[in-house]
Amino acid sequence: MPRPAGFALVEPPRTGTAARRVRAVGAGGADGAAKVTCRIRRWLLPLLLGCSFVAAVAAAPLSPAARAEIDGLLSRLESSACEFNRNGTWHSAAEAKTHLLRKLKYLEDRDLVRDTEQFVERAAATSSITGQDYLVRCARGTPVSSRSWLLTQLRLLRAATPVRSVP
Q1: pTM surpassing 0.90?
Q2: What are the structural domain ranges in the chain?
Q3: Could you read off the pLDDT of 59-111 as tens digits, one per residue?
Q4: Which of 39, 45, 64, 71 is the most buried (most CB within 10 A)?
């Protein structure tokens, strides 16, 4: 006799291999699905461990030289008298520096930033909440993307910094 839709046949709890097969396949599944599920499980843990190892190797901490460069870049922003637009609201350069330092700390705590360019891309170019580009406007001029402004300032900062020769 067919069962009405939405009602399941009540069976005693299964144990061992039969229970694993029922859980893996689900109601009405086939044996082939159980085999696929077992294969996926067999490779999932090594795959996840491998990915976490690669991520750990790729996420090196921020070097002191890169941190000094970021600090210099943010000091240039603060002393620029430019305005910084976040999510449609204009802020002073000092407020922008404070905000970007908070984002930098977040990235540093998680080893998600290795160099100044990565800081600009991950923290100083767009809002992590809305995805909107940050803008910089100097002397009430035309706003430019913060990415462009900061990378230009970074080039100027590097050009002004003497290169140390290794003895």
Answers
A1: no
A2: 16-58, 64-160
A3: 578 999 999 999 999 999 999 999 999 999 999 999 999 999 999 999 999 99
A4: 71
